[in-house]
Write a structure and sequence with these properties.
alpha/beta; Thymidylate Synthase, Chain A; 37% helix
Length: 230
């Protein structure tokens, strides 16, 4: 699926899950609940287009900026077991190493930033406080003077999480490009954002919100929510 910008990606993802999602009962995780879920891939062609967040999304640009700077770019936050940024910065500063590598070899196609760790599969780690990270990796590539990012989410809240996540990753990409240009005297631009998720979902408690959101623009027909048989 392709989308023009970040708000378009949010609407198209919600509509795809609404129309084609499977009913699924979550029995283990941060929230045990009924959901509609879809294995989805989406490519955003012009993610730099402002506004980054739809005015009906349940997040503000102030939150997105905090998420990009503190949760993705920086290190550990107080009262957090980890952040995506702390995983990216320690024990190897992958962001810094990615910048250094691109300045040395701008055509390197092997620069992947890993957030999920092998130890995350251990039950005793997972049940201590937090789930394994939803965002597992960010793969990068410079092509035709644009830095493209491909991200994988193992689990993704399409209504509440996705709009902040994609907007935050766009700001992350802009910060990465800014560092490359400043240090290397380059003129790279942020490129496309591509996302994959095996479990992009809408919680049952969000269905009415999504239906009301889609109805004015999509003429979405009502689809009754059926209990999962799984």
């Amino acid at each position: 699926m392709t989308a023009f910008d970040c708000p378009d990606a949010w609407h198209k993802t919600l509509n795809a899950i609404w129309e084609h999602g499977d009913n699924f009962d979550v029995h283990y995780g941060s929230e045990c609940a009924k959901t509609k879920k879809l294995n989805i891939s989406i490519e955003i062609m012009r993610p730099e287009t402002r506004p980054l967040v739809d005015d009906k999304a349940p997040c503000s640009m102030k939150y997105v900026q905090w998420y990009a700077l503190k949760y993705l770019w920086s290190g550990l936050l107080e009262d957090e077991t980890y952040t995506y940024g702390s995983r990216l910065r320690q024990p190897v500063d992958q962001i810094e190493k990615a910048i250094e590598r691109y300045l040395e070899k701008p055509h390197d196609r092997q620069i992947t930033l890993a957030i999920r760790l092998p130890r995350d599969i251990l039950k005793e780690v997972n049940e201590r406080k937090h789930e394994p990270p939803c965002l597992s990796l960010i793969d990068t590539e410079i092509s035709e003077d644009e830095l493209h990012l491909t991200s994988y989410f193992r689990s993704w809240d399409a209504y509440a999480g996705l709009p902040a996540n994609i907007a935050g990753i766009q700001l992350f990409n802009e910060a990465l490009v800014s560092e490359l240009n400043k240090r290397g005297g380059l003129s790279i631009e942020p490129g496309r954002l591509i996302f994959h998720s095996k479990n992009c979902h809408i919680y049952e408690r969000q269905l009415k919100l999504v239906q009301d959101l889609l109805k004015p623009n999509k003429n979405a027909r009502k689809r009754p929510y059926h209990k999962s048989t799984e």
